[in-house]
Amino acid sequence: MSATIEYWFDFVSPYAYIAAQSIEALAAKYGRSVEWKPVLLGAVFKNTGSMPLTMRPPVMSDYFKHDFQRSARFAKLPFVLPDPFPINTQNTARVCLWMQQVAPQRVGEFVRSVTRAYFSAPAAINDAAWLSAHVQAMGLDGAAAAAACDDPIFKDQLKQACEQAVAQGVFGAPWIVIDGEAFWGNDRLPQVEAWLANGGF
Amino acid sequence: MSATIEYWFDFVSPYAYIAAQSIEALAAKYGRSVEWKPVLLGAVFKNTGSMPLTMRPPVMSDYFKHDFQRSARFAKLPFVLPDPFPINTQNTARVCLWMQQVAPQRVGEFVRSVTRAYFSAPAAINDAAWLSAHVQAMGLDGAAAAAACDDPIFKDQLKQACEQAVAQGVFGAPWIVIDGEAFWGNDRLPQVEAWLANGGF
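Structure tokens for the assembled complex are given below, as produced in the milestone run.
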């Protein structure tokens, strides 16, 4: 049994935003920590020919937009669908990977605050300037964060993370792995908790 | 506020099987009854270009087959993926519509027992002979049930139900509607219960 659980996500995913707010506390309740795994859903979706939920036929995308709101409300979280949506989040992900090096114990806080900002009000979470200011406000080195956006080290780490995601069968977000058992979706949190509590079911 | 909630489903849907086992008790807890709405997902899927979960790319279909099992286990229900799967269920649906006329108070029991039979062991739930025997075992008129499979009245009712499903935006199963609010999926039952308990949230 590993002490960590994997949390694969894209900063642009509404359901990953919702689950991200509680996953670390849930893991801690059962003596686990979270290994945050930012990826780009665009890269992941290519493997299965999947489309973002809001780009599906109107009857579906309308339902999902409504369900994003309702699922956030159910979790007592704010939700405003960003415009434009979806966006690329490669810089956001790279700064997250940078933070895993310089302040690993702050990554959960970073993921929660960035996604919450993105789904609460207009926030250019993929802009280096926005990321720099956000990281600075966390009391960390904003200039170094901005630099991470163009750093080949983090570009390469993100590319490898996307490849690893595809290789291990990740096809959506959030994607939670507990001791090899994969759960897809915010709506699987009750099963995730039962799995953590009982070591499977 | 209506005294009923709509439960749109196909007898072939694993997640609709799981939710069907508890939806009537859940509704009753909040003073509601269930309006069972059998449809054919094949007809519904055409509207959005959707594919059965088990016919998607292997990485997805493998996940779903595993999740069917796990979600059933989580609900303390048996689950064996039928072979072949999926199948057409037009006769099963027509007998369900017939039962709504002759024994409306038994429809929930019919849905629960037929889906449970289908997902527990080999059971030809779309065969008139199987349906006849199953209905007979319920103490109802098995021969009349078999006749309903070819009765233009129930053929037409099912066709209209599929058209109505598409017209009101149903694109998957189970699809639960409470006072106009639509919830898709067995995994939305916690939200369904909160909605029933509070008249929305």
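Chain A has a mean pLDDT of 97. The longest strand of chain A covers residues 4-9. Further analysis is deferred to the final report.
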